[in-house]
Amino acid sequence: MTIEDFGARVASVWQGLRPSTRRLVERALSTPPPTLGVAATRGDSAYDARSEWELSRLLAALDERATERGETVLSAEQSRELARMADTCAAVLRREARSAEVFAQLLDRALRARDYARVDALADVLAARLAPSEMCEMARSANPAVRAVAQESLLQLPTAVLVALLGDPVDAEVARAALESQADEYESEEARFVVNALEQVDADEDDF
């Protein structure tokens, strides 16, 4: 079986991969399936952002082909191999991903499969893997379930980290909502102090 058997789009994305990314997939395909756990490391010098982007595109193409009905219908064997390749790409990304876009893709994929153990595993490493600004981006996702996972992870961040995000015009609204939740749901005195200060600033501006 060749990559062309999966259709034109998958073949095109595969041909566009750098040799190093292609070898990464081929090595993963030749090793035993990974366990459920998701490595939580961040800051590894071997991390390759372009490889992550390429693998994300390949995974999207494979998943799209699995649900397509316009092209030639896949045989049972082709469907199994397509699913194996897609699951392998997802497994590699789970170990390496450090962007909001790819984490959202993996969460959305797990949610569609109703693989809630995988959703929990991804949620458990979100804060360790993503920068706070990336978590805020996920919290603005169009997918309500992805938003909920990201928002819950933001609540686990130290209050000081959320306060630092208030200076960012893009992330400030999400950070403030997380601070309010820390104050109300977790009864954090530190968060409550910050929220009260923000409310006072708002009141002063209204008076002005």
List keywords for this structure.
mainly alpha, 0% strand, 70% helix, single chain, 208 residues, 11 helices
Short description:
With 208 residues, the chain is mainly alpha-helical. The chain is built from eleven helices and no strands.
Would you write up a description of this structure?
With 208 residues, the protein is an all-alpha fold. The protein has a domain at 1-96. The protein is built from 11 helices and no strands. It has helices at 8-16, 19-29, 49-67, 76-96, 100-112, 116-129, 132-138, 144-155, 159-165, 172-185, 189-207. The mean pLDDT is 90.
Mean pLDDT: 90
Low-confidence stretches: none
Distance between the termini: 71 Å
Largest sheet: none
